[in-house]
Amino acid sequence: MISVKTVLTAVLLAFSAGTLLHANESADKSPSPIWIAEIRGTINPASSSYFQKTIARAEEDHAGAVIVELDTPGGLLTSVRDMTQAMDRSTVPVIIYVSPAGASATSAGALLMLGSHVAAMASGTNIGAAHPVGAQGEEIKGAMGEKATNDTAAFARGMAELKGRNAELANEIVSKSKSLTAEEALKQRVIEIVANSRADLFKKLDRYQIKIKGETRSLRTEGVEVKTAEMTPGQTLLHYLANPNIAGLLMTLGILLIYVELSAPGMSIPGVLGGICILVALMSFELLPIRAGGLVLLIAGALMLLAEPFVTSHGALAVGGIISFVLGLVWVIDPSRTSLQISSSVWIPAGIALGMIVVSIGYFASRIKTLSRRTLAEMGGGAVSGLSGYHGTVESVEPDGKHGKATFRGELWNFESESPVKPGDAVEAIRAAGMTIRVRRRSELS
User: Fold this and answer.
1) Which of 230-234, 239-243, 302-306, 371-375 has the lowest mean pLDDT?
2) 3-state SS, residue 383
3) 412: containing domain
4) Cα separation of 260 and 265, whole Å?
5) Residue 84, Cβ neighbours under 10 Å: how many?
6) Residue 274 to residues 38, 297, 307, 358: CA-CA distances in angstroms?
7) Are residues 122 and 198 in the same domain?
8) What is the value of pTM for the model shown?
9) From the centroid of its chain, how far is CA 67?
10) Please, what is the angle between helix 244-263 and helix 269-286, to 10°?
11) Are residues 215 and 94 located together in one domain of the fold?
């Protein structure tokens, strides 16, 4: 017969095994971590790289979701397309959250929101105004403007339809520059959630049903591990450099410093710093969509300005260079591919600064030359006058016999004689004639 002890042992073993199995299942089903990323500022190749790499890291970590906190005035359409494609390929849900109050997702930022798996906003934020504009915010006229608007509007509609959002309103965000508050966007099905803090967002996302890659998932955000993705130093540097205003300021500063160096050779420091500024500006322009015509104007303006110290143009090269350079700043960024342009608060001061530096250096250079000549003349004239009555010796004579060089008090001076002389003759200084001494032979005095 089976003893009671054996039965109890078997029951205990079965219970322990069941408990361990349940514990393992619970561990296996523990919520996946949530990754947090932040994009503050323009959308550009650097922020796009950061965005895509964060998604890749989250996928490797089997994360439950990626939450991107956004505050942007816009940026490059090419970067937005890369980012929306990354979200479409992702196996991890991507939630875009515009926060804190006062933040915005305008222009390219609005398009990025439309491509997210879940779009959320804090109260006091806004989304929209994605109509393509010209270099100074004006409407792009003609076929080019129509082409840019239609292309961007189609992109917005496509993203909205793919994610089940209001495609008609998405079209108006582009075609009519419509802008919405968080509450309006929620009511009109542009976003899914209004949350006033990260904690509030996590609470509203918990058990939220989301469809991704053809399957419906339930998000788990309560009590999960939160991991933060930071930009690398290189990404941070490129993020700040990919700004048209920064590029324009650096280019202007570089040209100014090199102009100073060429106007006063030998200083070295302005030339070195100017070269660095121009190289960094070129790196910045490389990250931005530029127009060939604007770039040609910039280069032509810079060359004319830098040629001014070497060419007697009476200021014509400087004026032409400044005008060309400023026009280049206005036109160099292609408005059909980004909502960002070099602001008038940059190119107007740039033109004024260039003009002031050129005029100031020209004025002071002229004054210095005048003063130098005057000082030398005064010094030389005084010295010559002081030689009157002194005896000297002729060192060399020109063919006419009346001009040459003579030594007085150990110094060599130009002379002009009343009568022909020859080397070795003794002469006496009579008076000064500019930087020349009028002399006569001592034999004529006896």
Assistant:
1) 371-375
2) helix
3) 386-444
4) 8
5) 21
6) 34, 19, 16, 16
7) yes
8) 0.69
9) 27
10) 150
11) yes
